[in-house]
Amino acid sequence: MAASALLTGAPWLRMRLLPDAPARPFRHLHLRRALSVRASAGADGSSGPVRVRFAPSPTGNLHVGGARTALFNYLFARSKGGRFVLRVEDTDLERSTRKSEEAVLADLAWLGLEWDEGPDVGGEFGPYRQSERNSLYKQYAEKLLDSGAVYRCFCSSEELEQMKEVAKQRQLPPVYMGKWASASDAEVQQELEKGTPYTYRFRVPKEGSLKINDLIRGEVSWNLDTLGDFVIMRSNGQPVYNFCVTVDDATMQISHVIRAEEHLPNTLRQALIYKALGFSMPSFAHVSLILAPDRSKLSKRHGATSVGQYKEMGYLPQAMVNYLALLGWGDGTENEFFTIDDLVQKFTINRVNKSGAVFDATKLKWMNGQHLRSFPHDELIKAFEDRWKNTGILQESESGFAQEAAELLKDGIDLITDADAALTNLLSYPLHTTLSSEEAKPVVQDKISEVALSLISAYDSGELTQALAEGRDGWQKWVKGFGKSIKRKGKGLFMPLRVLLTGKLHGPDMGGSLALIHKAGICGAVTPQSNFVTLDERFRILKEVDWESLGKEQETPAESAVPAAS
User: Fold this and answer.
1) Backbone phi and psi for residue 546, each to the nearest 5 degrees, phi listed first
2) What one GO molecular function would you report for this record (predicted)?
């Protein structure tokens, strides 16, 4: 292990090295002297085989913060040629479920974070569920009891609450002040014979400090006088989180603990347990929290927060991995597009920022679009085609309509699920809504009725239909001649045409759009579910528009207030 530690002044630390030490001979250890612990490591803590772990609790869905922690562990392991271990922390028996565990593992697999050891693949340091390691925790708890590093505490809940209240009144940290740290063997034996429930409580030196060289945060220190003796085994025989984690990390030979900054305070207790058991300390790296736009901790009230939710919304695993990596890390360049292989090659722990990173859903969606459009062309087109057929917008057809639609719309789609709205929007014709909108007022007031009359004439003569049958080239040739015939060009020509033919003010390339709309009416690929409005129906609607009334409705208040000339 890369970490080194210096400890002085703790009697149990010296005496645990004696062979065949008698059980619990340390009833006078309440006269504890100061303890000093210092752990340090190189720039990235690397020294020997790299083994990291991600240890989720299966009490819910995989949060994006947990996914980023897993990703950083994965990238660090792969970049160092090390091992990525998955360990399930399921000691919360009331909340942990196997269904949740399966969901978490499925989300990690979807992200492409393959683990080398875990509950489903095994490994030489298993089992990999904490609930299956209880005998190991009890073994090490007894070892600490025999060495005098822990003691039995028979305090009732009422007594402990009273201690907290006294500490609060004295404005002191809520540390343990009970008698069992210094109780005699006879007093302990008396309670055992009575069957009084007890916990295992760890002896913490009254004075001293702990300092670690966090690979992200630099030197972090704590004073031991704020801690007090803490419980490692509950009265029901269940181990406490900090004890489990320490035993697991040590016995699984974890070299680097990369985890959320929420766990930073736990390091003090865990370091004391490491030293009491004679284990080498791993290197620690505490990653900043992911923040909401208001810089509070990201939570459900801010919208989707779990990997599963983003998966269901149509996000790509490649985009999620890329975006999560950039929440607190960068390669020192302006590049923001990374594949997972790129990240493995470029990731270093010393480039992880200790400041909180803000989760920007808009940026994630943009990045998803970048990854979507990076797919091989044929693969991307087929993804859209399959999506439209699966959702019932299109049906099987040899016309090539789906491929042409995907080609036209792909640059405006960031999520595969958005492809549905993009296509149905293209096929729709909300003319009346658009004409009555404030945004359309300049177009309507620019004598749109004159363009409409000429356009209807061109459609009734068949020349527009013939042009659209020839595709974009036919459209471009026709619209050029049409503009000359009505003496319009540029926006003065194309804005009213877009409104009259598509029913909208904005959209993809108009020539491509109209060629597709024409094709949709004759190819049989479009289903009734798409709410498609044919060209015939569009022109029927156009012929029914009362342009005179519409013009009056769109007059500005100043215009309508002008009196008629006498």
Assistant:
1) -90, 90
2) tRNA binding
